[in-house]
Amino acid sequence: xxxxxxxxxxxxxxxxxxxxxxxxxxxxxxxxxxxxxxxxxxxxxxxxxxxxxxxxxxxxxxxxxxxxxxxxxxxxxxxxxxxxxxxxxxxxxxxxxxxxxxxxxxxxxxxxxxxxxxxxxxxxxxxxxxxxxxxxxxxxxxxxxxxxxxxxxxxxxxxxxxxxxxxxxxxxxxxxxxxxxxxxxxxxxxxxxxxxxxxxxxxxxxxxxxxxxxxxxxxxxxxxxxxxxxxxxxxxxxxxxxxxxxxxxxxxxxxxxxxxxxxxxxxxxxxxxxxxxxxxxxxxxxxxxxxxxxxxxxxxxxxxxxxxxxxxxxxxxxxxxxxxxxxxxxxxxxxxxxxxxxxxxxxxxxxxxxxxxxxxxxxxxxxxxxxxxxxxxxxxxxxxxxxxxxxxxxxxxxxxxxxxxxxxxxxxxxxxxxxxxxxxxxxxxxxxxxxxxxxxxxxxxxxxxxxxxxxxxxxxxxxxxxxxxxxxxxxxxxxxxxxxxxxxxxxxx
Length: 493
Hints:
This protein is of the alpha/beta class and about 500 residues long. It has two domains: about 5-250, Rossmann fold; about 375-480, Arc Repressor Mutant, subunit A, CATH 1.10.10. Helix content is about 40%, strand content about 15%. It contains 18 helices and 13 strands. It has helices at about 20-25, 40-50, 65-70, 85-95, 110-125, 155-170, 190-195, 205-215, 275-280, 305-325, 330-345, 355-370, 380-390, 395-400, 400-410, 415-430, 435-445, 450-460; strands at about 5-10, 15-20, 30, 55-60, 75, 100-105, 135-140, 175-180, 200, 235-240, 245-250, 465-470, 475-480. This is Helicase HerA central domain-containing protein. InterPro entries: ATPase_Atu1862_pred, HerA-like, HerA_central, P-loop_NTPase. Pfam families: DUF87.
């Protein structure tokens, strides 16, 4: 089987071929302003290699879903999936060797970044037995690996940038070959762009992008203005997979069509009806709506008045809370109500993957709604209540000496590991089968089973637990000290 695919032709020469095996080892960066032909180039690359290598496409605009009709790609609609489902889909597509198009059309930028990070994370954390070669194409890569913070949340930006960095920096050993396309190199994170060894640079007009493109191709600065004159669909290629010197390449035709083709010029025919009646006709009664006149804004008070008003409000709130605290209430009933609130929060599937700070704010709001006041629990107390609830302990077990001993042992561990330890201790005390990696990962707040295994190894290194295997290879966990031991259980159950 040949490794060469034809991308187009060299003007005045022969065909422009790309070594697919070399591309999988050295990655590719495509750059060009809107309308330069980047999507056409990616489509040509995907069509030529569709029957040679498995493909995964991160598609923010739904341009590549048409590949499914011709080449059998599975189209995953991001609007119909959760973050956890996409992480599992990224792992399963490598296990079953299926080419996939992840369509993120219709999602906002924050959700697109989180969903792409989850999908790439699943592909990256696949077990070693399934590290088959995959061509991972990311269109509009500046959306997922921005060079600077934008309007998206810091959490979404960190997760997406981390996933893109893993793809380009560490993906090669796992069989993942990144192909990223961007409109502007200045908007793309440098540590992501720098890992590519092959380049296809299209038409560019801004000086900063032309300078970066010429630097990547090893061209002189005075030659950078040539990027302004490149025709649509022509790119300057450089890299071990195509050519050793910068060479213009005209991309060939494609077999499939994009759903988001550019505007087509058609003859303009003005309407024959009077424009005044068409555009300025009175609204029907059903469509008319009142537009109240805004009252003039009052001038803001001076700074001293604002501080005085804030102090009075704080004093009034403190007095109300003091009056509420003076109301007699059984402390045991109060703790029971707060524990019930925590259990209700954990009933939501998405709660397991939210940060402790976000959950704490949700907890405080629920406590105020339930009439428990603002300061129901501090953050440390909430983390302990959350760890206890995640362990799945019953009310009968929570009052036993064994569970009190388990909580004492958990106090010596970092807060983020206490829920995992209590979960394992509860299973050992109840003599239940050893929890699987997936169950441990969920209690920790992740979908990565590899991280769950690393947590167990960390606990064993600190002489907290002992990991054993029975004659059938099933895992047994023993808590050091009390000697509680789980029944054998399969880690991959």
